[in-house]
Amino acid sequence: MVSESALLKHPCYNEEAHHHFARMHVAVAPKCNIRCNYCNPKFDCVNESRPGVVSEVLSPEEASDRVSRTMAQLPNLSVVGIAGPGDPLANAEATFRTFRNLASLDPDLHLCLSTNGLMLPDYVEEIKELGIRHVTVTMNAIDPKIGARIYSNIFYQGEVYRDEAAAALLIERQLLGIEMLAKAGVLCKVNSVHIPEVNGEHLREVTRKVKELGAFSHNIMPLILSPGSFFEKKGFRVPTNEESIEVQRASAEIMPVMRHCRQCRADAVGMLGGDLSQTPEMMPAERYFDKSARDEIQQQLLSRMKQRHDEPKGDWGGAVRVAVATRGSGEINQHFGHAKEFLVYEVNGLGESRLIGVRKVQAYCNGTAECGEDGDGGARVFSETVQMLKDCALLLCSGIGKAPASKLQYAGIMPIVCKGEIDTQLKKNVKYLNYFAQ
Ligand code: CLF
Ligand code: SF4
């Protein structure tokens, strides 16, 4: 049974909420009990993080101190999660001590946990008792033969398991954990890493199975090769944008899929699209937060959030793809040169829009010259951005320099400078495009 209040303010479980509400991860869990072939253990857990990132490990007390200071700074912070840098349930004592401290800080804070699932069945009771309402299980296969290509070994109850025996045990524990969470009324999201030649075709089977067990949504994330990982050394490739869209589309026929994941760091802070963890002002001297002011601001954000009750009804054949530069609030409010990511939407003939993914890029403007006019570096970044967005007919942003605007147009992507609500601008600008195309 899905509780609406558990969903409304969670930026990962509710696509609309990610425009308004922030999350924070506290990195209290350094150890891991399995070995994924896309992971380099020197870095954060790749199941929820961008590879190549190392987070500073905190004690549970340091973590709650940091959360309380961040709550003073970010009134829209609604969720605190533990997602690494290893596996939270391989560090159960620190993980649950942290959650206990956080629950006493503010009972309205949503607590969130992300795990590889190996130890999950042992902790469902404790998860429920602590009021943790959201758990993510990363599960890449339900077939041990496929799993054996993804996991090299696991450590369970003092023994090391390898190959298919390891994958079979892990899968059995993950499935049991998901089923137990559903029975306990805890919302469970399943994350999967899409490894094109290994599990690309298999992921819809994973979706089917986890839906049957009561999972709430499926987040299929493209493989990002961790430097030094087995897959990187063996020359495995990442999925193309089209492959990612296709795999998500196939799973979306079975259950809701998440398309706005940012594969964030184990110490990420802020809105999903704008990590503030490396920003010094995130650590104010003041650790006091005004609960009633926070509640009021969050209430205002909830009332600004558009509640979508109706599924789009139009035909998506011939839909136009549009890239959008945004800093949040559901608005077009980011300059092209400053954007580190673009949301890509499809807009159909009825003007209905749906998000199909997030494309990460390097910001084009380095602040030293007119938007990216800085020689070879700018040219390289620009051509990578064009590559990333080449399936988009339009790009909506709050500003763009003349040079990149004409280069984008030359590459077949029409830049349009506008401001305001994303949905409204998508509808309006695609209507013009279709009108002029006739
Ligand atoms: Fe963090 Fe994960 Fe909770 Fe969100 S992230 S523990 S469910 S609060 Fe979100 Fe980040 Fe994607 Fe994870 S965008 S990587 S899905
Ligand atoms: Fe690495 Fe995370 Fe896999 Fe552990 S669960 S091996 S930390 S990717």
CATH superfamily membership of the largest domain: Aldolase class I
Which fold name corresponds to the CATH topology of the largest domain? TIM Barrel
Annotated CATH architecture of the largest domain = Alpha-Beta Barrel
Specify the biggest β-sheet.
9 strands, mixed
The dominant shape is globular
Q: Can you count the beta strands? A: 19
- The total of helices stands at 14
What is the gyration radius calculated from CA atoms? 22 Å
Distance between the termini: 48 Å
Q: Stretches where pLDDT falls below 50 for ≥5 residues? A: none
Secondary structural class: alpha/beta
Q: Care to describe what's here?
A:
35% of the residues lie in helices and 20% in strands. It has 438 residues and is of the alpha/beta class. The protein has two domains: 4-280, TIM Barrel (Alpha-Beta Barrel), CATH 3.20.20.70; 320-437, Dinitrogenase iron-molybdenum cofactor biosynthesis domain (Nucleotidyltransferase, domain 5), CATH 3.30.420.130. It has a nine-stranded mixed β-sheet. A hairpin with a 2-residue loop joins strand 6 (151-156) and strand 7. The longest helix is centred in the middle third of the chain and has 21 residues, at 163-183. The radius of gyration is 22 Å and the shape is globular. The termini are far apart. The protein binds FE(8)-S(7) cluster and iron/sulfur cluster. Iron/sulfur cluster (SF4) binds at residues 32, 34-36, 39, 45-47, 86-87, 116. The site of FE(8)-S(7) cluster has 17 residues, from strand 1, strand 3, strand 4 and strand 5.
